[in-house]
Each structure stands twice: as C-alpha cells, then as structure tokens.
Amino acid sequence: MSNQEKVVEKQDLKETVWSVKRVSIIAVFIALSAVGSMIKIPSPIGTIGLDSAPGYFCALAFGPVEGAAVIAIGHMLSSAVVGFPLSIPIDIFVAVQMAVWAIIFRLINNRYNVVLAIIAATILNGIVSAFTLVLVGGMGMVIGVMPFLTVASAINIIISAIAYKVVKGSKLI
C-alpha cells in the first residue's frame, strides 16, 4: 500500500460517522448517565434522576447526535432501574423527546446564550414533557409530577452547563 493510499484511508477513518473516538465518548457518557440514573429525585413515578446531565453536556461539548444518544439511553437506564413504571413504549417516547430537547438545548446555546438555553430546556423537559403523562394518568399525574420533573430538569441542565463552561475554559474540548 502506497503512502498516498494510507493518507486517504486515514482521512476516511476520520470522516466516519461512527469513529472509535466518537463511540468511546458516547460510551463514557452513557456510563456516567447510568451512574446518574441511580441518583433519584423523589417523585411519584420514581424515574426522575440525575441521568440527563451527561447527555446535555455531550450536546454542548461534542454535538447534537452524541447528546441525543446519551440522553435517550440515559433515560432508558433510569427507567430500567425502577422497572419501567410508565411502560416501555411511553419511556421510549420520553427518551426520544429528551433527545430532541438536548438538540434544542445545543441550538439555543449556539445561537443565543447558555442562560436562554437553560431556561428553554428546563421548560421543555420539565413542563412540556410532563404533559406526556396525561396519556398514563391524566391531568392529576401531570400536575403531580411537573414540579419534581422541573426541579430535576433544572438541576441536570445547570450541572451540564457549568461543567461545559469549566471544561471549555480549560481547553480540554
């Protein structure tokens, strides 16, 4: 194999969507999300925890696809720990929703600023996502879960934003 072919092959590897580096980053943050899924915020449904901070961080630091993957898998892990109390189909829907919120979090941060991104993501994940539960338990469940979900969302999002600012300031990413 000539040197020119080796250079072309290395470029192809760098441009691969599922590069080793990208998969490794996602795997590490999924592991952090799994740890966060064990730290629960007391709530009526039991799935609310600190599992989404790594996903929001990844969305800011590494990209929307990485953040969406980590946050969605993190939610499924958090639900699995307590036995999928909402049902697997509802939890899959919530995981997809959270992936969208992570992407929006990154877009608002990039277009405007982190404070607006924190506010928007907290409203989306805390209030809008609570309305998903109307399918499971009606408006009583929505109102019962919304304060817990909003507080947990704010905690996760603020942790991720602070971590991102610290790490970005250190030029590690």
Written account of the structure:
The protein has helices at residues 3-15, 20-37, 53-61, 64-81, 88-111, 114-128, 134-169. With 173 residues, it is mainly alpha-helical. The protein has one domain (3-169): Arp2/3 complex 21 kDa subunit ARPC3 (Orthogonal Bundle), CATH 1.10.1760.20. The longest helix is centred in the last third of the chain and has 36 residues, at 134-169. It is globular and about 45 Å long. The two termini are 34 Å apart. The model has no long low-confidence stretch (mean pLDDT 88).
Tell me roughly what share of residues is in helical segments: over 70%
The oligomeric state is single chain
Tell me the Rg in angstroms: 18 Å
Question: How many beta-strand elements?
Answer: 0
What sort of overall outline do the alpha carbons produce when their principal axes are compared?
globular
> What number is the mean pLDDT?
88
The CATH class assignment is: Mainly Alpha
CATH architecture descriptor text: Orthogonal Bundle
How much strand content do the residues show?
under 5%
Main sheet characteristics: none
> Which fold name is given in CATH as the topology?
Arp2/3 complex 21 kDa subunit ARPC3
Which structural class is indicated by helix and strand composition?
Answer: mainly alpha
Order of helices and strands: HHHHHHH
Low-confidence parts: none
Put simply, the count of helices is 7
| First and last CA, distance | 34 Å
Q: What's the number of domains?
A: 1
Provide a compact summary of the structure.
It is built from 7 helices and no strands. By secondary structure, the chain is mainly α. The mean pLDDT is 88.
